[in-house]
Amino acid sequence: MNLIDKQTESRRIITATENFFRVRFDYSPELVTVVKSIPGRQWSVIGRFWTIPINKKTILEIIKLKDFGFTLDDKAKGVLIDNDNDYKFSRIITTGKINDKEWFVVKFAYNEKILNFIHTINGRQWHQDGKYWLIPVNLFTVSKIKQLKDSFQFVACNLTKKRINSLNEPSVELEHPDKFEKLGGKLRPFQKIAVEFIIKIRKVIIGDQMGLGKTIEAIAAIHYEDAYPALIVCPSSVKLNWEKEINKWTPDKTICVINGRSNKGLPVSDYYIINYDILNHNKRLLKTINFKIGVVDESQFCKNPQTGRTRAVLEVFEKIELRILLTGTPIRNKPSELIPQLRLVNRLEDFGGWWRFAQRYCNAYEGPWGWDISGASNVEELNRILRSLCYIRRTKKEVLTELPNKTRSYVPVEINNRKEYESVKKDITVWYNEKSRTRSVLGQTLVKLEALKQVVAKGKLEVAINWIGDFLSTEEKLVVFAHHRTIVDSIYEKFKKVATKLQGGMENKEKQKAIDSFQNDSETKLIVVSILAGGIGINLTAASNALFIEQAWSPADLSQAEDRLHRIGQRFSVNYYYLIGKNTVDEMIANLIEKKRLVVDGVTEGTTRQTTEIIRNFLKGGLKK
Prior knowledge:
Elements: H1 3-10, E1 13-16, E2 20-24, H2 29-36, E3 42-44, E4 49-53, H3 56-66, E5 71-72, H4 74-83, E6 91-98, E7 101-108, H5 112-118, E8 125-127, E9 132-136, H6 139-152, E10 155-156, H7 158-168, H8 189-201, E11 203-206, H9 214-225, E12 230-234, H10 239-249, E13 255-257, E14 271-275, H11 276-286, E15 293-297, H12 308-316, E16 322-326, H13 339-344, H14 353-361, E17 365-367, E18 370-372, H15 379-389, E19 391-392, E20 406-413, H16 418-435, H17 441-472, E21 478-482, H18 485-494, E22 499-502, H19 508-520, E23 526-530, E24 545-548, H20 555-562, E25 574-581, H21 585-599, H22 602-605, H23 607-621
Parallel strand pairs: 1-5, 6-10, 11-16, 11-19, 12-14, 12-15, 13-14, 15-16, 20-25, 21-23, 21-24, 22-23, 24-25
Antiparallel strand pairs: 1-2, 2-4, 3-4, 6-7, 7-9, 8-9, 17-18
Helix pairs in contact: 6-7, 6-15, 8-9, 9-10, 11-12, 16-17, 17-18, 21-23
């Protein structure tokens, strides 16, 4: 075929609307004669094409026209595929049932690349008589079929397209949406989608970005399914937060928080909360409870299959039907860390088992000490297949319109120096009772209370370091606020490879260098800021998350610190996390400051007056607790 013939053929096109074919071609007496023989044809003077009604007779005529070198668009091909069983394209995907099982039917002329791709699909079968491949219809294969269609220009019939769309859609219509009305709060639309996804898939990984409410999504799913008793396995730093959120969202449910090793049995409860560190010691008792659902919070903790922690989780969850894994860390550079998590949601076999997964996604090779699976390969494919099977992830950017500008979360934690705290508190109480009638007592008391706050901060330091480490694994930036220099320095020293700091006593040039590094350097993930030194005139909008290890007495100081992130240039909703020492001065200060925030804006009333009023209120009741 010469160049003129090719150009002429390229202008022979058949498209389709809902009721008509449209046939376009450069003038050819032979083609005009053929088209005029088709019943119902009409010439469009304006459009310069022939219209032919779609029916069984004209479909046969269109098939004949293709032999004249016409190109058909996808809709025209779909019409022919859906209406003529004898019609054969070189690359076609249809859907049908064989032996009561639904299959994708894939036909194509021999092509080595396509054949190699087909061999990556689990469950494939070659049909010798029909000369086509059968692919089972499920959440895993639909991703492969979509990739086959898009990458190799296959034509899919309309039924196949519908199956692809239905299997790709995570959201389902819940039978009893009124159940959400009984929760202690209102779910956001994207959170409802996560609940629907959990209920539909049953064993899932929820990978929403931190701050979007994965804990709430899990509680809502448990509530909807009435799946009690429920087991929550989580880091020790968030045990109390789980207890707080359960009490808020489902206040009628009982909670058993497991601490240490239990030898006497566990009480009957709706929720059981246990941290990873003690799970192995308590697994025998837990396995005697018929849990309806299990939640693994921060499931990346189970990335190493050799640890006792991971083995204990796999053992305890073996007979639990509903399983929810929560992680803010998306799929990144070491897919091998997903293997235990895929075992937890019973999805590893969908990838062909351990060895097939290691070959395909971990770039496995045999080294001097055995097989090395620390690499990564085909990561985009892995992410795509995970999403089609059991994984859902939304970022702040994707759901920004559903989020408030600011969200404050108070995270209760245990302090690890309780004896020291109680001793200091007792000394202050005795001193205050003796001095309470003197005029200068307020200023002196503030100094002593600052010492008590510092004891609490020291007791929270270990939890804070663990919390920050977990957060940084998401590769997002974080601002940490503290008050005392020892706390600022301790956090900075722990993370100085990826951190900078901002505190009193620094030269202006040094401060600006720290700010610029955090704002502009992708390797600087953390900035530790003194609440007072970093409260005014600086911009930290590179982060949309902040952790307060300590609180100021004044709401104005805290608001100014918060506004370092929430200001012009911030593109996302900002999350503020306040670590609150349980049964300490922290709780009283947080309650008083929050009440004051509700009354009046901190800046307009004035720092001194606020501080004085809050301290007086605290002294009335705080030291008596």
